[in-house]
Design a protein that fits this description.
Order of helices and strands: HHHHHHHHHH
Helix content: over 70%
Strand content: under 5%
Distance between the termini: 81 Å
Number of domains: 1
Oligomer: single chain
Number of strands: 0
Length: 234
């Protein structure tokens, strides 16, 4: 019998893949995402699908906004995927399938209609098959990341949608009629993600202000040193 990987195994693999230190402010984000994906990967009812992949990719990109150095972000993402035995390129390709579907919809109603009766264009067949399989699977393992994938698709169609309370409740109910998940659970995850995004934006502003203040402080010190050198030479 194959041994089930533990969270410790996955974390160890991650830090073997990505050896550079991670900014302390973002470390919690990275480790929470890593643990969440790990727990799903060892669940017998869980299957990777394009909407879930979009949730993984978009939550990573949004929560890692402002990370420095910027070039380390892709290394971190790849290490997360490899640590759970997944292919980062496949995750991004699957995420693009879901996002591109949303981009070509004229309205959220059209997206719901597509979910109810998938009509795939060339290249969209894996997404269509996944949606059909999920809709017909009473043991579908719903995850917060799947919910974030749906949130991202809807936001792509209407970026102001989540401010419309009545419309939000109506669409959430319709999604729950397509996929085997309760409207209450979807609504809770949508609201939590929206709240977290707002907190991240506030954090980024604080970080940028701190970085700017530090830059000005270093420039001031450098200028003072230059003045002292000039005084010493005169």
């Amino acid at each position: 019998m194959e041994k089930v990987r533990t969270v410790s195994d996955t974390k160890r693999d991650f830090y073997t893949q990505h050896t550079r230190p991670i900014n302390s402010i973002y470390r919690r984000v990275v480790e929470e995402l890593l643990v969440e994906i790990h727990l799903l990967s060892v669940n017998i009812h869980f299957r990777v699908d394009p909407i879930y992949c979009l949730g993984v990719v978009s939550s990573f990109e949004r929560f890692m906004q402002g990370y420095r150095p910027e070039k380390d972000k892709e290394s971190i993402f790849q290490a997360i995927c490899h640590a759970v035995g997944s292919n980062p390129q496949e995750y991004r390709a699957n995420a693009d399938l879901a996002l591109n579907l949303a981009k070509r919809q004229e309205s959220i109603a059209n997206l719901i209609s597509w979910f109810n009766s998938p009509d795939p264009q060339e290249g969209e067949y894996p997404l269509a098959e996944a949606v059909k399989a999920i809709a017909q699977n009473p043991q579908f393992k719903y995850s917060r990341l799947f919910g974030i994938g749906l949130y991202t698709m809807i936001s792509e169609i209407d970026s102001e949608f989540w401010r419309k309370q009545e419309s939000k409740e109506e669409i959430t109910t319709q999604l729950a009629e397509v996929f085997p998940v309760s409207a209450e659970k979807l609504q809770k995850d949508f609201d939590l993600y929206q709240s977290n995004l707002e907190k991240i934006q506030q954090m980024i502003i604080v970080l940028e202000e701190a970085l700017e203040a530090d830059r000005k402080k270093r420039e001031r010190k450098s200028l003072e040193l230059d003045v002292k050198k000039d005084d010493a030479q005169s």
